[in-house]
Amino acid sequence: MGEFRFLLNGKVVTVKAPPCYTLLEVLRYVLRMTGTKEGCARGDCGECTVLLDGEPVHACLTVMTQVEGRSVTTIEGIDPQHPLVRAFVEAGAVQCGHCTPGLIISSYALLSRNPSPTEEEVREAIRGNLCRCTGYSKIVRAVLSAAGV
Amino acid sequence: MEVPLHDVDVLVPKNLTEALRILSERRDIRVLAGGTDLLVQLRSGAVSKSDLIDISRLQELRYIRHSDGYIAIGALTTYSDIAGSDIVRRYAPLLAEAAETVGSVQIMNKGTIGGNVINASPAADSLPPLYVLDAKLKLVSVDGTRAVGISDFYRGYKKLEIRPNELLAEVRLRAMGAGEVGHFFKHGLRQGDAISVVNGAVVLDLDGDKVVNAAIALGAVAPTVVRAPEAERVLKGKRLSEDVMWEASREVLKSISPIDDVRGSAAYRRELSVNYLYMTLWRLAREVGAL
User: Fold this and answer.
1) Position B5 in a domain
2) What span, in angstroms and rounded, lies between the C-alpha atoms of A114 and A112?
3) Are B106 and B164 part of one and the same domain?
């Protein structure tokens, strides 16, 4: 059992977990923060996407020794009134909702470094996030609309 | 059944020296870099469970440098680092192309070039560029340092020229010269994030539209990445005409021995290899004004 200290959505947290526990397991089973979803658990679907020091990564492929001392942002750390979240709701970019947290995180990372992306840049940024409901059109529209493009 | 990893111990060395000491003392341990392949393989049981040494935080192995006609890339440099590097984009643009298409943004942010080399998938996207740019791998251990050429490093399917106490520290490749052009190509089953069905890299050294030298490598069509000397020979000394490019592309079949698997049949891979090589040569010919 190891003890890991990191910044989670701006607050310092300390958790006890086996060192090979993934960040996804710690979020969902230790901290009971279930906003981050588990899809494939092998890096294909992007559902568990979180920001590690500001960059999107798979929480399912990140073990706790890789998190120690770093900053993690999950969907719980995004303001529900954030323009991106509102745009997803308004554009109807949410259907079953399972992919939504990961897509918001990937889009959030994109807009943080590129506030006015092209449609192609949006599609590139979310290419690792699978959605089996929407066909992506409304998701892309939501991100562009949040960017004011 | 997923293999539980709760009892796996993860050692975190503070620096390279400590990492090498651990590797010399613990022969039963695996090196964890980005983890994008290793964790999947551990959980699926594709590799046996072992304790890990997590080197992912060793910043001293994360760099891209250019000097004396070479590019040196630290083993822990991520695909995102490589794709965004001005040095790589200028002196090895085909490696930047490979890094951009290796997987999703999430994979690019964690996966490392050293991990890709050591994981040794015949479909690894960084490998064809390393083969055509004559990469040398720097292996370090408590006993010292040695360099191994990329084609000598892979002795067969996942059979590597590396000792248990050695760590891959750096990948060093030839910087492309002024007359050289090249591209990476890849066929995946999904555009955004896929393992290659066939991939490859081409570098041509051109004098006008005449090929002075050619280097071609293909992946996912043999137990290791392979060079295509027959196809290279067809191109050398010739002008880039459609006939020459087709002849060279068909010659690639002599270098490959693909298998049927979940991503495609051997026959499909043979056809893809010929067609992708032709398309890549055609693209290069167009870019240099030869067509």
Assistant:
1) no
2) 6
3) yes
Contact A43 B36 (CB under 8 A): yes
Neighbours of B217 (CB within 10 A): 25
Residues 6+ apart with CB under 8 A from A113: none
Q: Tell me what pLDDT residue B193 has.
A: 76
- C-alpha dihedral over A25, A31, A36, A41, to 10 degrees? 0
- Quote the CA–CA distance of A134 and B63 in Å, as a whole number: 40
Q: Could you tell me how far CA B85 lies from the centroid of its own chain? A: 17
Counted domains in chain B: 3
pLDDT at B190 over 80: no
Instruction: Go through the domains of chain A in sequence order and give each one's CATH number.
Output: 2-74 (3.10.20.30), 83-146 (1.10.150.120)
Confidence at A67, pLDDT banded by 50, 70, 90: very high
Residues 6+ apart with CB under 8 A from B252: B216, B218, B228, B230, B231, B273, B274, B277
Out of B36, B52, B191, name the one closest to residue A20 (CB): B52
- ipTM tops the 0.95 cut: yes
Among B130, B158, B174, residue at a domain's last position = B174
Q: Which of B19, B35, B54 is the last residue of a domain?
A: B54
C-alpha B213/C-alpha B84 separation (Å) is 28
Would you call A58 and B107 a contact, using CB atoms and an 8 Å cutoff?
yes
Check pLDDT > 80 for residue A3: yes
For residues B69 and B157, state if they share a domain: yes
Q: Give CA–CA dist B217/B201, Å, rounded.
A: 5
| Mean pLDDT of the residues in chain B | 96
**What residues of B are in the A interface, CB distance below 8 Å?**
2, 5-10, 12, 32, 34-36, 39-40, 43-44, 52, 54, 56-57, 80, 103-107, 109-110, 191-193
Range of the domain at B37: 10-54
pLDDT tens track for B220-246: 999 999 999 999 999 999 999 999 999
* Chain B nearest CA to A13, separation (Å): 20
User: Do B169 and B197 share a domain, yes or no?
Assistant: no
B209 with B234, same domain?
yes
Mark whether B190 and B276 lie in a shared domain: yes
In sequence order, the 6+-apart residues with CB closer than 8 A to the CB of B129 are B92, B94, B95, B97, B98, B173, B184, B201, B217
The alpha-helical segments, DSSP class H, found in A80-132 are 83-91, 100-113, 119-125
Sequence-separated (6 or more) residues with CB below 8 Å from residue A131: A95, A99, A103, A139
Average pLDDT in the A112-118 region? 97
